[in-house]
Amino acid sequence: MKIEKLMESYKSLIAIPVIITLIAVVILAVNGLNYGVELRGGTIADLQLQEPVSQTQLENIISSGLGTNDVSVQLVGSNQSTVEIGGEVDPGVLRNTLNGTASILGFRSVGPVLSAEALNQIFWAILFAFIFMAVTVFVVFRNFVPSIAVILAALSDIIIAAGGMSLFGIPLSLASVGALLLLIGYSVDTDILLTTRVLRRKEGTVTERAVDAMKTGLTMAVTSISAMATLYIVVVLLIPSAEVLANIAAVLIIGLVADVLVTWLMNLGILRWYLERGRS
């Protein structure tokens, strides 16, 4: 009964995800997004450590030798490391800097043209994902308001996830973009579940149909969030070198939590308003 009473206040509940989305926009406007080396250009080197050294010590050695603070080190096991350095670096200079500490196993540079092209392709990928999603939703429902609600919900999920990435310093990379695209698909799934149950089914009241959809949707959300939280904890505690997996899990956790709020507060509220307006 508490859920049913809560749903009666849907007009005020719509404001919660809207405010969170606006806060995410402000965070993005102020902090921006950090880009991975493959999107901003730079150098990636795989190293074989010749002596025990911590991540911080190796970062300091490279930063001092190259005269840059834009250095990120990931230790791989006990004797290997992957280093990302902003800007182009001469392999000979890096080799001299690491003399006695590590040897270079692999070295590759991502120039500004290639990184700009990769970033451009990412934006196009996200844009086309939204376009095809919008077309699919309009074909399925053939109704403007519910279709727009689904699209707005997916957009809010992505904005909140991006705001979380900016807030927690998670870089935008090819891997994290994959996580954002997954969020679009997941958001559409939950929103179509809600919209289909509420609009297409005729048995029971609107509130009863919404509660039934919510039980299914929240079960999906809890399962997914638990899986990603487990992955994040395992990576952080047991496989710290797999930072990419931790970043993917973190992006998905933020987005999935956002989807719970956006779907069951904003989207459901819009559908309730639409149905009530139709009766009047």
Task: Tell me the layout of helices and strands.
Layout: H1 2-7, H2 10-13, H3 15-31, H4 37-40, E1 42-49, H5 55-66, E2 71-76, E3 80-86, H6 91-97, E4 102-110, H7 112-141, H8 144-168, H9 174-200, H10 206-238, H11 243-279
Antiparallel strand pairs: 1-3, 1-4, 2-3
Helix pairs in contact: 3-8, 3-11, 5-6, 7-8, 7-9, 8-9, 8-11, 9-10, 9-11, 10-11
Give an account of the 3D structure:
This protein has helices spanning 2-7, 10-13, 15-31, 37-40, 55-66, 91-97, 112-141, 144-168, 174-200, 206-238, 243-279; strands spanning 42-49, 71-76, 80-86, 102-110. It has 280 residues and is an alpha+beta fold. Helix 9 (174-200) packs parallel to helix 11 (243-279). The chain is elongated and about 75 Å long. The model has no long low-confidence stretch (mean pLDDT 86).
Q: Biggest sheet, open or closed, and with what strands and sense?
A: 4 strands, antiparallel
* Secondary-structure class: alpha+beta
Rg is: 23 Å
Q: Could you name the ranges where pLDDT drops below 50 across 5 or more consecutive residues?
A: none
- Trace the largest sheet across and list its strands: 2-3-1-4
Strand content: 5-15%
For the termini, the CA-CA separation is 26 Å
Average pLDDT figure: 86
Q: Residue share in helices?
A: over 70%
What is the number of beta strands?
4
Shape: elongated
SSE order: HHHHEHEEHEHHHHH
Output the number of helix runs: 11
Précis, in short:
The chain has 280 residues and is α+β, with helices and mostly antiparallel strands.
What attributes does this structure have?
11 helices; 280 residues; 4 strands; elongated; alpha+beta; four-stranded antiparallel beta sheet
